[in-house]
Write a structure and sequence with these properties.
Elements (H helix, E strand, L loop, with lengths): L1 E5 L6 H15 L3 E6 L13 E5 L13 H16 L3 E5 L1 H15 L7 E6 L2 H4 L5 H12 L3 E4 L2 H10 L8 E2 L18 H4 L5 E6 L8 H11 L5 E6 L5 H10 L6 E5 L13 E4 L8 H8 L4 E4 L14 E4 L4 H13 L1 H19 L1 H16 L6
Parallel strand pairs: 1-2, 1-4, 2-3, 4-5, 5-6, 6-7, 8-9, 8-11, 9-10, 11-12, 12-13
């Protein structure tokens, strides 16, 4: 198959999944084209059958804001024409599905009818899609797609309840993890760079937006580390990071926090953690938690969104209500103090990641879904 994949290139679950899906499809012999405004950070530029196409946005003075959605539609149209795409896979309804639909309309009569698949990752529904001005656009993008998938059953149900778009036939295809890359025991030399020999490591990875509740990370760690010698390693960057640093100083744990910044090869750092902490207000799936689990690390997170579909309560981790930092701190403290418990849960986390979310097992699911969409009659 000839497949175009449209995604954001930034650090985040949607871009990671889109890029790694493209890489796996190319490795399986499909002709894959990644379309974005910058090279995605996990893009393998030397893999056969995998190409990157940059969306160039004009800075014409007439426009107060550069019209990225139009530039994207034009790039999609050019790639579809030049390479004869069968499938265009848009990750996010806004603006990617809309731009894909526009590109297909411009191609009408100029070749075969490219099928449009849209994957909903969460914020396109929970944040963007809930704004009045964008709700109808989101609904339109979903309805114009030949196939729609969501990353969790919870997100599918949320779409059905909040957006009247005939979404009952949404296919739930969860995110996946490369279990050969994300595995226990990788890069043990990195641990000494993150923490002292006698320190346990609590790790948090995010884009430090408010929905991730990163200040709760600091608050719960300050409580949990009162009786256990530990270090908090925060990986990533974002608008809430300065507030986290201020809170760490206020609570007297700044010297036990490592602010590691953005790190692309995250599979090198995750195995060094003793606990992975993700206290988000909402996660449509929780990819960072899954990647930690694949590295054999137990998770302390929240019982909202799609996270309970990934982390098994009391088996591969502990889940609590968002904002309940007291209970979270207790779970973290228990895992740090009880090595046998941490090892048992870490092994269960690895088993869960490999058995339910391994990339090699989910790649055929995507290929079968594409074939199903391709078999649908062309739109008029």
């Amino acid at each position: 198959m000839k497949i175009g994949i449209v995604c954001y290139p930034t650090h985040g679950g949607s871009g990671v999944v889109a890029t790694e899906l493209g890489s796996a499809l190319a490795q399986n012999g499909h002709d894959v084209h990644i379309i974005s405004y910058a090279i995605p950070f996990r893009f393998d530029s030397f893999r056969k059958n995998l190409r990157y196409h940059e969306v160039e946005v004009s800075a014409y003075p007439l426009f107060r804001y550069p019209p990225y959605d139009l530039a994207l539609a034009g790039t999609i149209m050019e790639v579809a024409q030049q390479y004869g795409l069968d499938i265009l896979h848009a990750h996010y309804a806004i603006p990617h599905a809309i731009s894909g639909h526009l590109a297909r309309e411009m191609l009408n009569g100029g070749g075969k009818n490219v099928k449009l698949v849209t994957t909903l990752h969460g914020t396109d529904i929970t944040i963007i899609g809930q704004q009045r001005i964008f709700q109808r656009i989101t609904r339109f993008g979903i309805r114009q797609s030949d196939g729609v998938t969501s990353v969790s059953a919870e997100l599918k149900q949320r779409v059905i309840e909040t957006i009247d778009c005939g979404a009952q036939d949404i296919e739930v295809i969860p995110n996946f993890v490369d279990a050969d890359r994300f595995k226990p025991g990788c890069c043990p030399n990195k641990r000494a760079q993150l923490a002292g020999e006698d320190e346990k490591i609590v790790m948090h990875v995010s884009n430090f937006r408010e929905v991730k509740r990163p200040r709760d990370v600091v608050k719960a760690f300050a409580d949990a580390s009162k009786t256990v010698k530990a270090r908090l390693v925060l990986i990533g960057d974002g608008p809430e990071l300065p507030a986290c640093k201020d809170l760490a100083r206020e609570l007297g744990v700044f010297d036990r926090c490592t602010f590691a910044g953005t790190y692309d090869a995250i599979w090198e750092l995750l195995p060094q953690a003793d606990v992975f902490f993700l206290p988000s207000e909402y996660e449509s799936f929780g990819l960072s938690a899954l990647e930690a689990m694949a590295c054999g690390v137990p998770v302390v997170g929240t019982n909202t969104g799609g996270t309970p579909e990934v982390v098994e309560q009391d088996v591969s981790g502990f889940l609590h209500d968002p904002g309940d930092t007291v209970a979270m701190a207790e779970s973290i403290r228990g895992l740090l103090a009880d090595q046998a418990l941490a090892q048992r849960m870490g092994a269960a986390a690895r088993e869960r990641a490999v058995s339910a979310f391994r990339r090699d097992a989910l790649l055929p699911v995507w290929e079968q879904y594409y074939e199903k969409v391709l078999a649908l009659p062309d739109r008029p």
